[in-house]
Each structure stands twice: as structure tokens, then as C-alpha cells.
């Protein structure tokens, strides 16, 4: 199902309440046969909507479906520069394709990504209406040379947003991941469009695990956690989106003026690998040392045989030893 047509949308809204609905009732609502109902159900399952079928009772979503609401996010964040789509290839790509015809602070959020991507070419598992797939545009007039610590600043902004909706204890892993007790909660992917000595167009992609469906969890090859398991309260993705936008609106202009230095102390309190034995992976090379945090530019500081070495992101990876 590359897009949700009118009938698919009607079916989603019907199943959103988490109650059972008979195939006959669904067929009448959509004006289709029982065979077609089956096909629509399969289409939703293919994009990650967890739907049960119980003979004699009908179809039920495994959990109530709360869809993103563009108007609500605009009202909560105080900005009109928000676009919510149901299905996209990638929220980052949606913004990249619109440069330079968009304004600072334009956000794009999707319910599902056909080609969500992470750092170093990895895919990002994107079940429908389950997580937050979020991208944000910002133009840096100072140019690309000022942006080496941007992913770290975005990590801090994301932790701030999570704390404001009641999620405590999240830590940061250099250069672009959010963790909770050793399990990945979120990732950041920043993509640039720039030339030397010119303004730098940046698209900030943030993926946050909100509610992981069991079937989608099987596709992930590393320890993970989601916000639902960290909170006794229901996670409102509209509120999370708006709070994240507000944090970025506040921190990005300050970062552009002052760089990462004002945020170093915050990073050191959140760094989950600080003062721990780690391995830095650089191409085919593995360097063992002790993580000593970051410098003013956002470079990783690694103590090797009593000497400090620094490493910038890109193709560098960090692992616990």
C-alpha cells in the first residue's frame, strides 16, 4: 500500500477505537466485498498496523490508533510551518526536495516512511502511526564549518523535549543516539545541502520509538526501548512533536551564535559512555580507549595510553568495549 486511499482512511478511523468490527460491517462502510476487506486489512498490516482477526467477532487493532493532527501540533507549537503526511519515502527527503523554497523552522512529520534512513545508510524501521518520524529544516548563514557539533545539540534538544513531557533518565551516545539504560530509544540523522563559503541548508531528522509493535520489533538487530514502556501515562505524539519543535526553535538560533560551548556541561551530564572503556571504529580500524566526553567543536575525546585524541563524526562509530 504505497498510499492510503479514501477507503483505507475510513478503515483506519474505524479500527482506531481498538474495538472489534465485523467484516460485514467493514464491507458495508467501504462499499466493498468481504474479499476486498481482507485485502485492505492486509495492506494496513503491511505498513505495520497490528490487526487481529477473531472468527465470529471480526477485526480489531491491537491498540487504539492515535493519528497525528497537523492543526493540534500547530496550535501547541505556535508555528504554522508544519506538514503532516501519512506516508512518505522519507521526511528528510521531503524537506531536501524543497530547498531553497522553504523557511527556517519548517517541519515534516509522517505516520509511515517507505524508505526511512539512519546514519551510515542503515534503514529505520517505521511502523505506521507507532513512532515519531520527524524532520526539521534550518538554514545556517555562518556556513558548514560551524556545524560539527550540531547532532549533539539536537540530542540535547530532544532530551529536553522528552523531559518536558515527563520522560526522565534518557542519556546521549556520541554522536547521534539517545539511549535508556543501554537500549536505543531514538536516533538523529542530519543531512546537509551546502557549498563552501555559502549558507548551509540543514535537514535534521529525528526518529523516536514511541510504541513498538511486536512484529516490527523482530526486524531490529540491537537492544531497543520505546517511550510507552517508560511512562505510566499515554504518550501523545502531537504534544511530543510540538515540544520538540519548540526546543529546536529555542536552541538552534543560540547554537548558531555561540556554538556548542554553552551546552557542554549538559552533554557531560547526559553522556552514557563518559569515563567508560570504549572502542572507536574507523573504517577497518578499531581504537580502544577511555571516553572523556567531547570538546568545544563536538569532537569525541578518547584517552589512549594517557594521551587525549579527538575524533569527528561522519564514518566514526563508538561502542562500549
Automatic annotation (TrEMBL):
<feature type="DNA-binding region" description="H-T-H motif">
    <location>
        <begin position="23"/>
        <end position="42"/>
    </location>
</feature>
<keyword id="KW-0805">Transcription regulation</keyword>
<protein>
    <recommendedName>
        <fullName>Bifunctional ligase/repressor BirA</fullName>
        <ecNumber>6.3.4.15</ecNumber>
    </recommendedName>
</protein>
<keyword id="KW-0067">ATP-binding</keyword>
<keyword id="KW-0678">Repressor</keyword>
<keyword id="KW-0436">Ligase</keyword>
<dbReference type="GO" id="GO:0016874">
    <property type="term" value="F:ligase activity"/>
</dbReference>
<comment type="function">
    <text>Acts both as a biotin--[acetyl-CoA-carboxylase] ligase and a biotin-operon repressor. In the presence of ATP, BirA activates biotin to form the BirA-biotinyl-5'-adenylate (BirA-bio-5'-AMP or holoBirA) complex. HoloBirA can either transfer the biotinyl moiety to the biotin carboxyl carrier protein (BCCP) subunit of acetyl-CoA carboxylase, or bind to the biotin operator site and inhibit transcription of the operon.</text>
</comment>
<feature type="binding site">
    <location>
        <begin position="117"/>
        <end position="119"/>
    </location>
    <ligand>
        <name>biotin</name>
    </ligand>
</feature>
<keyword id="KW-0547">Nucleotide-binding</keyword>
<comment type="similarity">
    <text>Belongs to the biotin--protein ligase family.</text>
</comment>
<dbReference type="InterPro" id="IPR045864">
    <property type="entry name" value="aa-tRNA-synth_II/BPL/LPL"/>
</dbReference>
<dbReference type="Pfam" id="PF08279">
    <property type="entry name" value="HTH_11"/>
</dbReference>
<dbReference type="InterPro" id="IPR008988">
    <property type="entry name" value="Transcriptional_repressor_C"/>
</dbReference>
<dbReference type="InterPro" id="IPR030855">
    <property type="entry name" value="Bifunct_BirA"/>
</dbReference>
<feature type="binding site">
    <location>
        <position position="113"/>
    </location>
    <ligand>
        <name>biotin</name>
    </ligand>
</feature>
<feature type="domain" description="BPL/LPL catalytic">
    <location>
        <begin position="67"/>
        <end position="256"/>
    </location>
</feature>
<dbReference type="InterPro" id="IPR036388">
    <property type="entry name" value="WH-like_DNA-bd_sf"/>
</dbReference>
<dbReference type="InterPro" id="IPR003142">
    <property type="entry name" value="BPL_C"/>
</dbReference>
<keyword id="KW-0238">DNA-binding</keyword>
<dbReference type="Pfam" id="PF02237">
    <property type="entry name" value="BPL_C"/>
</dbReference>
<keyword id="KW-0092">Biotin</keyword>
<feature type="binding site">
    <location>
        <begin position="90"/>
        <end position="92"/>
    </location>
    <ligand>
        <name>biotin</name>
    </ligand>
</feature>
<dbReference type="Pfam" id="PF03099">
    <property type="entry name" value="BPL_LplA_LipB"/>
</dbReference>
<dbReference type="InterPro" id="IPR004143">
    <property type="entry name" value="BPL_LPL_catalytic"/>
</dbReference>
<dbReference type="InterPro" id="IPR004408">
    <property type="entry name" value="Biotin_CoA_COase_ligase"/>
</dbReference>
<dbReference type="InterPro" id="IPR013196">
    <property type="entry name" value="HTH_11"/>
</dbReference>
<keyword id="KW-0804">Transcription</keyword>
<dbReference type="InterPro" id="IPR036390">
    <property type="entry name" value="WH_DNA-bd_sf"/>
</dbReference>
<feature type="binding site">
    <location>
        <position position="184"/>
    </location>
    <ligand>
        <name>biotin</name>
    </ligand>
</feature>
Amino acid at each position: 500500500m504505497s498510499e492510503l486511499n479514501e477507503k483505507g482512511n475510513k478503515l483506519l478511523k474505524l479500527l482506531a477505537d481498538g474495538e472489534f468490527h465485523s467484516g460485514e460491517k467493514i464491507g458495508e462502510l467501504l462499499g466493498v466485498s468481504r474479499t476486498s476487506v481482507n485485502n485492505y486489512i492486509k495492506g494496513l498490516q503491511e505498513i505495520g498496523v497490528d490487526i487481529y482477526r477473531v472468527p465470529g467477532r471480526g477485526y480489531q487493532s491491537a491498540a487504539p490508533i492515535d493519528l497525528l493532527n497537523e492543526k493540534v501540533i500547530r496550535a501547541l507549537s505556535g508555528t504554522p510551518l508544519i506538514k503532516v503526511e501519512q506516508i512518505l519515502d522519507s521526511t528528510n527527503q521531503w524537506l531536501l526536495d524543497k530547498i531553497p523554497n522553504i523557511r527556517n523552522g519548517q517541519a515534516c512529520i509522517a505516520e509511515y516512511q517507505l524508505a526511512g534512513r539512519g546514519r551510515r545508510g542503515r534503514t529505520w524501521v517505521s511502523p505506521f502511526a507507532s513512532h515519531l518520524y520527524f524532520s526539521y529544516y534550518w538554514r545556517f548563514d555562518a556556513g558548514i564549518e560551524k556545524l560539527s557539533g550540531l547532532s549533539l545539540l539536537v540530542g540535547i534538544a530532544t532530551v529536553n523535549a522528552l523531559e518536558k513531557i515527563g520522560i526522565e533518565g534518557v542519556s546521549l551516545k556520541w554522536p547521534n543516539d539517545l539511549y535508556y539504560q543501554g537500549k536505543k530509544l531514538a536516533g538523529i540523522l542530519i543531512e546537509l545541502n551546502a557549498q563552501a563559503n555559502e549558507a548551509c541548508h540543514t535537514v535534521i531528522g529525528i526518529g523516536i520509538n514511541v510504541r513498538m509493535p511486536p512484529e516490527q520489533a523482530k526486524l531490529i538487530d540491537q537492544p531497543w526501548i520505546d517511550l510507552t514502556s517508560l511512562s505510566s501515562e499515554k504518550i501523545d505524539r502531537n504534544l511530543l512533536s510540538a515540544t520538540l519543535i519548540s526546543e529546536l526553535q529555542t536552541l538552534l538560533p543560540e547554537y548558531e551564535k555561540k556554538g556548542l560551548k554553552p551546552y557542554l556541561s549538559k552533554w557531560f551530564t547526559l553522556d552514557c559512555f563518559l569515563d567508560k572503556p570504549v572502542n572507536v571504529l574507523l573504517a577497518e580500524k578499531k581504537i580502544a580507549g577511555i571516553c572523556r566526553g567531547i570538546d568545544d567543536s563536538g569532537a569525541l575525546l578518547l584517552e589512549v595510553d594517557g594521551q587525549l585524541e579527538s575524533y569527528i563524526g561522519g564514518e566514526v562509530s563508538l561502542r562500549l568495549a
